[in-house]
Design goal:
Layout: H1 8-12, H2 15-27, E1 42-46, E2 63-67, H3 68-86, H4 90-127, H5 132-166
């Protein structure tokens, strides 16, 4: 009994994948979950792969919408991570996994608290009568929120670049 193997490109044309792909993009608001772009070519990214699964056999929870640029960047970073992991001993790998699991939460917790305070401050200002001072404070809060959001989104990329630079 011979089995015909389909190329990955052929698998991506399967109606089952197309339905799941559209569901994920709709769930994510037709925008890249990483940079929030909606005007770029959007793709669906598998956060991980499992041997033997067709693209549509993954749960939607491991699929996200990514623009072509972010998807390419993630793919390149994952290749680099695979190279680094391949050089590690089992003990080093366990330590690295533990560190990565804690990294994002520990690093971003203070920034998340500042963002929460910005939201509270914005609500206080909006609840009062308009003034030039209030308008200036809102501008500062907007700038601060935008900057913190950029930092939060850049943390994984920045840490990866720093690790690469140290190597």
């Amino acid at each position: 009994m011979s089995t015909v193997r389909m190329s990955y490109a052929e698998l991506l044309r399967d109606p089952r994948w197309q339905r799941l792909r559209l569901y994920v993009m709709e769930r994510d608001g037709w925008a890249c979950v990483y940079c929030k772009a909606s005007h770029r070519n959007l793709q669906v990214h598998h956060k991980h792969y499992e041997k033997g699964l067709a693209p549509w056999e993954y749960p939607a929870s491991v699929l996200v919408t990514a623009c072509e640029d972010c998807h390419g960047r993630i793919t390149d970073l994952k290749k680099r991570a695979d190279e680094v992991i391949g050089e590690m001993t089992p003990d080093e790998l366990v330590d690295a996994i533990d560190h990565l699991g804690q990294f994002r939460t520990v690093t971003l917790r203070p920034l998340a608290a500042v963002l929460e305070r910005c939201h509270e401050e914005r609500n206080e200002i909006i609840s009062r009568p308009y003034s030039t001072e209030a308008s200036r404070r809102l501008e500062v809060i907007d700038a601060l929120e935008a900057h913190i959001s950029d930092v939060i989104e850049a943390v994984p990329a920045t840490s990866t670049a720093a690790q690469r630079d140290r190597a």
